[in-house]
């Protein structure tokens, strides 16, 4: 049975974390901020459960948001399209979350046409996916352009609310640079879809149901391939003091990992390529599905707590950045 999570439950903070005796007007700055961080962490821990293998974890796989399932169907990519698969899945999740917040709560059956999204990208850029490395383009070109197109022109989608396919737009997004684990986990806890990338090799494709993926070529300081997914949960290996990881929905069918889902250690994720997506179902179906996909570049909404991103690949502190160096391929065309 799915665990039910209401907005009130999602916003819950352990009462004991709030019961702090406040000194007089000389309360030290660090006491206030330390208490706030403890409350924030307690908020994350309060929704976690112990899994059968001893990890501490929360995910939307078995959890309902306000009585509704907000996860999209697991996709199965057949080409080099993980970026478009993840963005479409994340936008579907954003729409489902928006629908679950209605009074009364409802669901959404909107499904995006990923193949047409790829065609939009190729028509807009006048290049095929996979050409970016040959043109020496920035590493985030594909996802940035795709998200901008989703904002400006929408992507073709089906629904029982209209005939055929209509374009539905992404409302807005936040690009979170060099985030802390707790911040990313809190977006996920609130049901907000987060998409992001990490380095991948052939071992990734055989990830077991209970395994946590770890990129093993870190000492080379070069990334040959990267993969974008939708993050739907977070956890701690073995205990709340254990290594931190994220749960993701993959796009290699339900045969992958745990029914199409997997886990990856947070330290292996590209910290400068994480996006939080926002969208809602259109009140009136768009009548012209053939609108132009040519649009000027749109700047993302910046994370208000953003700090200047440190553009160093796989720095000494163990954090990952995809900037600089050789342009990696995506998982669809991993080198043999």
From TrEMBL:
InterPro entries: Papain-like_cys_pep_sf (IPR038765), Peptidase_C1A_C (IPR000668). Residues 288-336 are annotated as: Disordered. One of its GO terms (biological process) is proteolysis. GO terms for molecular function: cysteine-type peptidase activity. It comes from the Eukaryota. Residues 167-265 form the Peptidase C1A papain C-terminal domain. CDD domains: Peptidase_C1. Gene3D superfamilies: Cysteine proteinases. Residues 296-316 have a biased composition (Basic and acidic residues). This is Peptidase C1A papain C-terminal domain-containing protein.
